[in-house]
Amino acid sequence: MDLVKPEFGLFFWQLITIIILIFLLAKFAWNPILKGIKDREDSINDSLNAAEDAKKEMMHLQEKNQDMIKEARAERDQMLKDAQSARKRMLEEANSQANEKAAQIIAKAQETIQADKKAALQEIKSEVASLSIEIAEKIIATKLKDDKSQQDLVERMLKDVKLN
């Protein structure tokens, strides 16, 4: 049971050994350990700060993206409106051009019809005149077969013609 009972000499040397061990640990081990722990703490804090900065940057980028999306939508809507107005304007122009062409075609057709009508009337008149002359020739030829009827006709015509 001597091991359980501490003596003063053993206690003194154990105390001296512990103090020397603490001194050596403080001189050579505690500073590097504490420095390592401090470095680790600083790197963790830096990482947390970097993560916070990245989070803020992500929020900023998301806001910027939202703004860009809104601008793109507004631009798309404006382009659609412009395209629709251009389409409407083109349709109106095409309709007006078609109406003008139709009016020109109708006017030309009416002019052609009038010209054809005049030509037909002129042809009819010349046919009627030609037929009238033929009929008159036949009538005169049958009525003026002898010299006496020809002489009577000439005298009647001379009476009808008045000299100035």
Structural overview:
It is a single chain. With 164 residues, the chain is mainly α. 91% of the residues lie in helices and 0% in strands. The chain has helices spanning 8-143, 147-160.
Specify the helix fraction band.
over 70%
Number of helices, where a helix is a run of at least 4 consecutive DSSP H or I residues: 2
Q: Which radius of gyration do the C-alpha atoms yield?
A: 65 Å
Helix/strand-derived category reads: mainly alpha
Low-confidence stretches: none
- What sequence of helices (H) and strands (E) makes up the elements? HH
3D shape: rod-shaped
Strand content: under 5%
- Please state the average pLDDT score: 86
Number of DSSP E strands: 0
Measured distance between first and last alpha carbons: 191 Å
Largest sheet: none
